Amino acid sequence: MMELVDTYWLYFLVGQYPNGPLGGLALTLVLASLGLLLALPLGILLGLGRVSPLAWVRIPVSSLVFVVRGTPLLMVVFWAYFFLPVITGSKTNQFNTMLAALVLFDAAYLAEIVRAGLQALPGGQMQAARSLGLSYAQAMRLVLLPQALRHMLPSLVNQFVSTIKQTSLGTIIGLSELSYIANQINAQVLVKPAEIFATLALTYFILCFGLSRIAYALETRLSARPQP
Description:
mainly alpha
């Protein structure tokens, strides 16, 4: 295994970069980070729509969230792969295709995290904010949402863990993320698949376990604070 790491470590980390497109572990982290960051505003909007008192907002938003959450990410990737060129009028590269799929998929899950965070707050806070003269939108933006987002931090880290693992589906559209690079190395070496995929599994484990411990530490710290 050490011989493989010594030979292919740079290819495993960044793919063909700087002589080609970025790939490997670096691309996986960039893709997961961008996917979650771009999905967060959309997820907040969808989450607010899920708890909206207006049925004409709540019902369509809830339907969208249920459809996306009930669909495998693989299907969302295929939708993005075939429909984005139709919408944009030009061929979409693998990175943008996978990014679009992750943003839509993560936004649906973040919407439920936002909804749960808002509904976990004491019910009297909305009434108290409204009694001070704030509108529903102002009460949600200035009073409820900041508190909910603070309690959502561990769930956001856990969602980032899930997103890192979901980037491996980029392999099916030829995106040179971590799993694709491992397959490329295996195709070159041929005789050491166990060592190659053990290294891949260990890399995912180190990343995801480390982030899971961060989420646990955040959850413990937030639980230790006095409740408002």
